Protein 1
Amino acid sequence: MSPNDQSRPAEPGVAEANEAVRRRFPFEDTRDLDDARRGFMGTTSDGAIHSADGRVVWDLEAYGFLAGECPDTANPSLWRQSRMAADHGLFEVVEGIYQVRGFDLSNMTLVEGERGVFVIDPLISAETAAAALALYRAHRGDRPVTGVLYTHSHVDHFGGVRGVVTEDEVAAGVPVLAPEGFLDHAVSENVYAGTAMARRAAYMYGAALPKGGRGQIGTGLGQTTSTGAVGLIPPTLDVTRTGQEETVDGIRMVFQLTPGTEAPAELNIHFPAHAALCMAENATHNLHNLLTLRGAEVRDPRVWARYLTEAVTLFGADSDLAFASHHWPVWGRERVLAFLSEQRDLYAYLHDQTLRLLNQGLTPLEIAERVEMPPALERAWHTHGYYGSVSHNTKAVYQRYMGWFDGNPAHLWEHPPVEAAERYVTYMGGAEEVLRRARDSYAEGDFRWVVQVVHHVLFADPGNAEARTLQADALEQLGYGCENGPWRNFYLTGALELRQGPVGTPTATASPDFLGALTVEQLCDALAVRVDGPRSWHADLTVRWNLPDGEPLTLRLFNGVLTHLTGTGPAVAPPDVEITGGEADLRAVLLGALPPVGLAAREGVTVSGDLGKFTTLLGHLSEPDPGFAIVTP
């Protein structure tokens, strides 16, 4: 930690709770540790991975401290998990299948074919993916990439694709496989709501936190997110059904489509020649998220459990090992079946028990306090809530079925946070009295209540230095006790921002390269969510773009809504300006790289009408804020 670090030691109650975890669970069991190191072939001698401009996008040595003893400022169960997830290098899964682990949040898997190597899930950043491929080649030879596969639609499984293959190579015949619906869901997460998700991801993954026993020690699923160049090359071959088989470079693959599980578009893969089953992110060494804290669509645990049962039925008798896009493999047919069955039971139990209590009238907060995992599941390390948690997963199940409202009319029309906070603080006798009582609660070790009550003082008076300090201290103590990596990172990042100011958003997924991979319709949808509605109430602007090789596209801003239609007909309003030009020019305007007024000088572009109307239309768009406040109003 830096000399100016303002962190505090663990309070006695937190230290005692962490020690109780050590006594409760079988830390002497080393099977996971052995599995995490099995097949190690070597790692890079470079301590860090850099971008082209010299910036460090991934530090391979940042987690070396995890080799030491767990301090009392960290939950020993999370420390154990993070130590294994931090192991970096090339590992042999089975002859012909290899993984590079510890080079990003996720794993890159490489399957050797007849002519080259097939890459599964090329990490987040081009830089980390290129370094992973270089490590593989250093040990296995300079084999060309003969195919790429994205197991699902989260950025840590496709963002680094340009580090392993180029668009020219794809155009020349290197296939890119993905589950049906991949591109739509990748866009919805990283573009439509991308700014808000990236901002919250800064908290969830703790990328701005110092690494160490009082700071970021991992996320449970992996260590953190790399911060290099995020890209996307669209798939060239969709997997559309379970049982579909594809052979790439002599590698035969049998697919199981699993939509609505860990991602809206996801698949598992069986490799018959290796008796190996890739579970993507549907079965990893932790309880996963049903609603990730960065924000996403609520996942369906009932469907998730059903697909895990189906995986056992389809492939269990022919699988001697299972590996995934995170963590380490499981070897041995009996262990694979037990692992998948216990993972299945995790999601089924959370679903069924939440519904049971929901139908007894319990609210999300009450259910989260009531549900405990069965002892037989809790004894298995891979069921622990290192990434998802029982608490926030039960709330997600409730939300999936019942929405945000708990049924109590007192919660139907509450004041927004600042207005409510001002009233709370007044009712409680003023900020000074609230803080006096909160300091007593802090001394008693009731950090959860301190955070809840001091929040009101902060939102009523964000400049109150005493409230900021006390809130930061209480958030930090809650973080020290967390077995869940994202919870720890949220608490500690909140404390960091209260003490030092905004830390920003380290990773931007909606990069120019990513946006360039979208369809024109997706670009139009991305613009529509940026329209400043109230400022556009009285606007009525229509732009038509005639594409030489396609139907005309009409954009209309009316009633505060930006719609787009293709073709002609009674539903299409007459345009204020009509442009004929290629798709590249249209994209340049929609992406902001070319102002509409510049179209008049473009070769091959003709304009009829007032180009200023196009400029006016785009002027109704607002800019998202990648650094919006979270722990203050």
Protein 2
Amino acid sequence: MTSTVPNAVQHTDAAEPITMFGPDFPYAYDDFLAHPAGIGQIPATEHGTEVAVIGGGLSGIVAAYELMKMGLKPVVYEADEIGGRLRTVGFEGCDPELTAEMGAMRFPPSSTALQHYIDLVGLETKPFPNPLSPATPSTVVDLKGESHYARTIADLPQVYRDVMDAWNRCLDEGADFSDMNRAMRERDVPRIREIWAKLVQKLDNQTFYGFLCDSDAFKSFRHREIFGQVGFGTGGWDTDFPNSILEILRVVYTEADDHHRGIVGGSQQLPLRLWDREPQKIVHWPLGTSLSSLHDGEPRPAVTRLTRTAGNRITVTDATGDIRTYPAAIFTGQSWLLLSKIDCDDALFPIDHWTAMERTHYMESSKLFVPVDRPFWLDKAVDDRGVPTGRDVMSMTLTDRMTRGTYLLDNGPGEPAVICLSYTWCDDSLKWLPLSPNERMEVMLKSLGEIYRDVDIRKHIIGSPVTVSWENEPYFMGAFKANLPGHYRYQRRLFTHFMQDRLPADKRGLFLAGDDISWTAGWAEGAVQTALNAVWGVMTQFGGATDATNPGPGDVFDDIAPVELPED
């Protein structure tokens, strides 16, 4: 998803950065992680106890890493490879440093808990070339066969600025945007909760598109159409139009769509480095212990069966047929796996939680990348008379053609580079599903050839394309969760599952985590936050506690719990 329409407010150098803790549960996970007292401890009698962690994506690896530091023994199960949707791949026959991000590729500064781990493992980030960002030399918006070249939004026709203004007005009039943004920036929890409680009750049943249509600012269908195709911050969001407007507000309130940065060398390095990291502050285990060393280098294989057994324990069967029983487990995989690929005991969760998982709505997403010999797009164009125009021959491209979003990923002058020929969502992603990688590439090159008639992209390609359709990945079945109208109650059940003193005694011990359990699905920050919630839950189950000076998410839950809507 990409955009030319900037955020509704100008950013300032505030003393406190805004954080993606979100309006639903305004807990400062970044402060929790940074506190010198640490995030909690367990009784020495529990040291060395095994805890199953199912899923080796970011959420699972963060949870396992923090459990290990507390003195527990996480046993990580992973069906595919460590990283989950932090998946970085290379190109066959090309320099291994030339990579493509098949999943998460851009991260906002408001992902402050995520940034804690990025800093912890010593990764470098750099600005991501979103449309019209300072990191992007130029942008072309191509709609209905008409192209516009721009370096800033001021270079686009007036109608685009009108759409930007309409979105700003729509947010302020319908969702108290400026007031909420200010409260988020100041971490004014009472004010955040006051604004959000009213909006949840008012807007839970409203779609994104309906929210636009209800605004006087978007009376024009043409404006709504342009807005859907070009979007704001992170994209042309017409594919999100059927989703709940609350999902969209979480993104804009937390500035999740703004000032993105990419991880140099690829995002998958983050979970891989955590897997190998030997923490200096660790309980029970000797210095030099890592998740890797506890697993002899490899996680356990895919989980095929989950059951409750005597003593309210969780029994895990893996793909080798090995059966192990644990006093606690954390499940971080895509929640639909519990309905399909994993044979599950109904007693694992209360029926309302099963319903919430079954109702979860996932969005599709596809990408295709090709390696090229150099960033040729920075060559300067000439007109029909051979006179230089001052324009780049190719630009970051937003279009209503099949490609939708095309990104140009530069590794330096003259160095091999990468083009994401197409990044699409939902129905636009499903259009690619029947096609092979080469068939996809041919259609994409044809679409881009209609925009850049004098550019031979093909002659610069130096390797085979790599592609992904997340809806076709057997352990994902979609890119990420996106609530439909009326789904707030379901999401609340899943997010609050870590508060297990609210559950029947025979439904405890298995904790849900992962970005689709969070309020900010599709963002790695949500994976981190729910991992920390689950760690708090496991610690509490084992009789542990946080330091009084650094209360955890469960310690303050009653003060900042998500709004509870009536069930009747």
Protein 3
Amino acid sequence: MRIGVLTEGGYPYASSESRVWCDRLVRGLAQHEFDVYALSRSAGTRGGGGPFRQPANVRLVRTAPLWAPADDGRTYGRRDRRRFTTHLADLVTALSRTPQAAGGTGDDPLAARFASGLYGLADLARERGGLCAALRSESAARVLEAACRAPGAHRSVHPATVPDYLAFADRLERALRPLSLDWYDTADGLGSTDLCHAASSGAAALPGLVAKRFFGVPLLVTEYGVQLRAHYLTAAGTPDSPPLRTLLAAFQRRLTTEVYRQADALTPGNTHARRWQERCGADRARIRTVYPGVEAERFAAVGDRADEGGAGDGRTVVWVGRVEPAKDLVGLLHAFGEIRKQLPHTRLRIIAAPVRDREAGGYLAHCRGLAAQLFPDEAAGAHAVGDNPVSFEEIGGPEAPDLADAYAAGSVSVLSSVVEGFPVGLIEAMLCGRATVSTDVGAVVEVIGGTGLVVPPRNPRALADACLALLRDPERRQRLGAAARARALELFTVEQNLAAFRALYLELLALAPVRRETESPYGWPVPFAHPAEAHVAGRWTAAPRPAPAWAATVAEGVHV
């Protein structure tokens, strides 16, 4: 089977959670061939200019930048300009008007109009090109102005000005740039793949929509973080004007809804993402929750020791993760102050991934200063060197050379976040057989499933009480740690993730209509002209493969 993997801003260039997951998928399903189509959001995405080293079953990697100018130099004649204006008007009308003003029946009368405009522009781009210049033209600005000032338009877009129209046209051109790419040829492009697998919704899934619309290629969309929610959170802190924010949010919502509507299968990574998909109109029958996998073998040694009773230092609390304000290390330090009042010999080890950006470095410096203020260095005697009960360490350092060593450093693992998606670090602690205390954010409760303690976020006192309960009860720590490890091994391993996608690939291909027919000399389709066993993964499979001789013989025998 040949799979087209669609990514945005991650695999195979940038180091991210998405890159790790895609790399494991491609390497774990070595029996399939993969074509990677990557959208690059910025010049830095390319990670030094080239992709990470790919396995042998990756046939090709094609990249399209969304940050650089992309004008093919083509312009439209009168007839094509009329087509462009009609399709753009359909699309922006669906963005600017409210469903109540649109009238009609059904759940969302504007969804069909948005789809008509989107696929009309895609068809025009495939036939004529020139979409970039057209979207930046005066005609596009006039269409936007007419839509925003038409009766029934949302009241927040009425105050839009010419700069707003030009800014939105620029953003829209970048968002729709995948429509103009040369990725869709039926010889060796997305049009000839057996399945498109998008690593997220939004722009990454847009090429999959085109391949499904014009070539009938099945579309699978995986979301471990909800792109629409991420856009809402990011847009709140931008200097964009209210009309521009409204139009951009409406476009992202409409595009996401269309992706969910057209996808043959959706695989959210947790129940939180699944609820977002259902609220955006996704069919429940096509949703399959597939948890992201973690390499259990990496933590096997620490987990085995925990099962035998070696669950780390009973007086040490460990926090492991990336340093950022959302992790609420400040709240954790205040909670540890309450712990030290009742258990004076307790230690807190904060073991973080290497800090690479300025904001994280500033937050880490603030936390170090707060720890020095809350917990002055303590010395056993007048001539001894003081020691702080809170230590800040780095993964890869002498005390924690490996990630598993970080979790092995203590008996209680803490997650203190105020915002969290899917808590991979929590699963790693569970695989190490550690008792956990977590805040109730994201998919934490779904992951824990009763094998750890969960407290409200931004509540240092509740966090301290939960940690004290475990530090004072070694038997409970052992019991919860063993249950947590058993749950993680059952649900959250790489093997479980790969098995789910392996079965889903076969199911989608079995349900997809046959798109390549071979006719016999008598005009009848040849049965088994493309049998599954005739396709063997490998580089040489890109060459034309004639139908097996026995298939033609069988066909002639049937139709003579």
Protein 4
Amino acid sequence: MSHELVSYLELLARGAATEAYDRPVLLARASGAGPEVLAELEEAKQLALRVRAELEGRRRREAELSALFATAHDLAGLRDLDAVLRAIVQRARSLLGTEVAYLSLNDPAAGDTYMRVTEGSVSARFQQVRLGMGEGLGGLVAQTARPYVTEDYFADPRFQHTRAIDAAVRDEGLVAILGVPLSLGSQVIGVLFAADRRARVFEREQVALLGSLAAHAAVAIDTANLLAETRSALAELERANDIIREHSAVIERASDVHDRLSELVLHGGGVHDVAHAVSEVLGGTVEFTEAGAGSARRAGGHAVREGDDWVAAVSAGDETLGALVLHGQPELDPVDQRTLERAALVTSLLLLARRSAGEAEQRVRGELLDDLLDAPDRDPRLLRERAARLRTDSEAPHVVLAARIDRAAEDAADSDAGRRESADRRRLWSAASHLAATRHGLASARDGGTVLLLPLGPGESAAELARQTARSLGGTLREPVTVGASAPVRKVLDRPDQVALAYEEARRCLDALVLLHRSGQGAAAEDLGFLGLLLADGRDIDGFVGRTIGQVVDYDLRRGTDLVRTLDAYFASGMSPARTKDELHVHVNTVAQRLERVGRLLGPDWQSPARALEIQLALRLHAMAAAVTR
């Protein structure tokens, strides 16, 4: 590619002006270039100018689309009609590059159209002008519902000139005007204009763009009118509701809340649905709280007043489950008090039902997982049916996770250690069961801890799932939970025997985390370096080598360097650069440069004892794999 051709690419890259594209041809002609070179440059110049024009057109279209999207966004959050119309007029002026833009609306009562919004206008007379139907360019657009454009307003005989309109246009100094209708269906409600104080030709694309903006303006006006009608209707409804409430008897409110609560119970409503229903009936704000029943616990099921609030205990036998608290109604008559008490009773029933259903589902999930672990010869068809009832995705890859709360040694020696350990197991199983239900998995208590079978999400690894599970369970229980994960198991219900093997791997990973003083963390075998290689059932040697020295191996393959051999010689020489250079027959500076590159690829701690041991093992495994493939 010649230097002049490169020059055209540079001009395109920096968005140079059109005149700059003549310079390479002029320079070539001045340097005595031949006709063929000049012809080639002229052709390249024309091509570059076409590319430049295409790019300019695309940028302009992008700006137009951006403005239309911004206008649509403004309409979606419509609060002030005038602000939206001003934004549309401002965008019309900016995109079309005109000196003035304005919008007029039709007045059906007066039979004319009037100026609503202007941008760039300096004449008060122009800003207040009114046009009769058919008068002036705007009146013609409003009458015919078609866009009109004139290069010279005063010389254009297509529309009716009047003294008042011409005086206003002349006072503003306008010459070229484009007007498009604001239409709602077949009805024209106004006109959107773009105008210049000099003669100008408006292109077809500009007419279409202004038409799109006009369509948005029409939608804004229609939406604002509908909102106004809706607000008026809502206001009338509110006044009617006030009258109804004023004339409703207290006993009717009690009947209403009874019907609502019955319907909520029959349709599976929740505690907060009950609170919302009672709020509407009593006129205040009712909330459910799991604490703060206070004196209501001692009131024998009756609602009591605490300050400006009313409180009704939610209880089941001797167990207090919470309370319903009514705010904003310090004075309650006896019937309304009984309404709040009845709502508290319904709430207690819903909580007990939800608890029973949750415990039953947790038991069923635990039983299915126990069968996968203890009875791998079960009929896969029956297992799939049970999993389907629990909404478990049996086709997704699953990971078996072993979770446990590991307390310090001094805690274990405590006299209450046994009781505390039993309580920990129950709490952990409850939290794990809830997590499994939310992730469409399974959970069961086992071996002093909990085992979970959870599906992998898209792009998720076993190690990531282990860390997420440790964080989730630890956050729920507010103490560290250690989680070990197996490698992913595919089609768990078709091969249930693999679940038991995966559980053993997860337990080994869990025990390794404790031995490595990483209690409270989650990990899979791939997180534990060569120790994970030994723990994993799959013996993923290639994966271990890739995670440990893969960047160095890839660098050698891409660059043709010898970093792997240098690393091997470095460790074989007792990590001595001087002996390494003798082994490789290179200068010691070459060894230093190669080791510096290794450090950038593997990280600054690659020579620490733990990392060095893993790297040496990976080098040996890599060498063995290379020897086998030869």
